[in-house]
């Protein structure tokens, strides 16, 4: 809902929120997280590639997961910043990833998307499929005009997702993200922070024209490890 208030003769536009919904594709269901997802979510977030390319706590604990499901993920929507989806297989209902919108700007009708694929579900093209479904919903039903992706320079799998979706590379933000790498004595479980560039990708409604058909003609959403 969009609320308007007037203060000293000036109209203040309060932030609106995305609806609480689920989105289905041929293979996937994008839905809000629930407590039944916690065990699989903990396992996914403790994967080494997820640790390397995200700023999630490590090790990722039961407390972290419950806080995410109960408070952080729902607040993204209710506070107007974005929306968070658990990505599950349609047939098995197994958690295979997550996709979220954040940094949403209602004035410019623009938002940023981030995605993670669980290690047991990589190679199936689930990130491409889920982000495509989310983008189609945003452009068609929510009237948005721009989606932005920011992929670390070393995360080539994430860059492939952007390319398959028809995103346009718009530039590089130098030294803009903190990633993590194993310490020299990797057996001790240690990690150290490193700086990395971010490649900025833009996706507009017209960029999606024909993308679904092209993916179908190419044999589907891909078989590379589109983890994040």
UniProtKB/TrEMBL annotation:
Give the N-acetyltransferase domain ranges. 28-184
Say yes or no: keyword Acyltransferase present.
Answer: yes
Q: What class of enzyme is it?
A: transferase
Q: What are the UniProt keywords, alphabetically?
A: Acyltransferase, Transferase
Which PROSITE patterns does this UniProt record tie to the protein? GNAT
Query: Coiled-coil annotation: which residues?
Result: none
The answer to whether keyword Iron applies is no
- Source domain of life is Bacteria
Under InterPro entries, the record lists: Acyl_CoA_acyltransferase, GNAT_dom, Ribosomal_N-acetyltransferase
Could you say which EC number(s) this protein's record lists?
A: 2.3.-.-
Q: Which GO terms describe its molecular function?
A: acyltransferase activity
Xref: PANTHER family: ACETYLTRANSFERASE (PTHR43441:SF10), RIBOSOMAL-PROTEIN-SERINE ACETYLTRANSFERASE (PTHR43441)
> What is the protein named?
GNAT family N-acetyltransferase
Source organism of the structure: Streptomyces argenteolus
């Amino acid at each position: 809902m969009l609320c308007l208030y007037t203060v000293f003769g000036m109209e203040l536009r309060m932030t609106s929120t995305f609806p609480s919904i689920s989105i289905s594709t041929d293979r996937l269901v994008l839905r809000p997280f629930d407590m039944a997802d916690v065990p699989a979510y903990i396992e996914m977030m403790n994967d080494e590639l997820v640790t390397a390319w995200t700023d999630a706590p490590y090790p990722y604990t039961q407390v972290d997961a419950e806080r995410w499901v109960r408070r952080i993920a729902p607040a993204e929507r209710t506070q107007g910043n974005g929306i968070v989806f658990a990505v599950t297989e349609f047939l098995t209902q197994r958690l295979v990833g997550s996709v979220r919108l954040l940094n949403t700007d209602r004035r410019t009708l623009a938002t940023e998307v981030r995605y993670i694929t669980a290690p047991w579900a990589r190679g199936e093209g689930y990130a491409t499929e889920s982000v495509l479904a989310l983008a189609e919903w945003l452009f068609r039903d929510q009237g948005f005009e721009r989606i932005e992706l920011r992929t670390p320079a070393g995360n080539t799998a994430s860059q492939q997702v952007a390319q398959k979706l028809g995103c346009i590379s718009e530039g590089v933000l130098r030294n803009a993200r903190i990633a993590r790498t194993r310490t020299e004595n990797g057996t001790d479980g240690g990690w150290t922070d490193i700086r990395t560039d971010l490649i900025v990708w833009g996706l507009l409604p017209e960029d999606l024209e024909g993308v679904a058909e092209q993916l179908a003609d190419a044999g589907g959403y891909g078989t590379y490890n589109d983890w994040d």
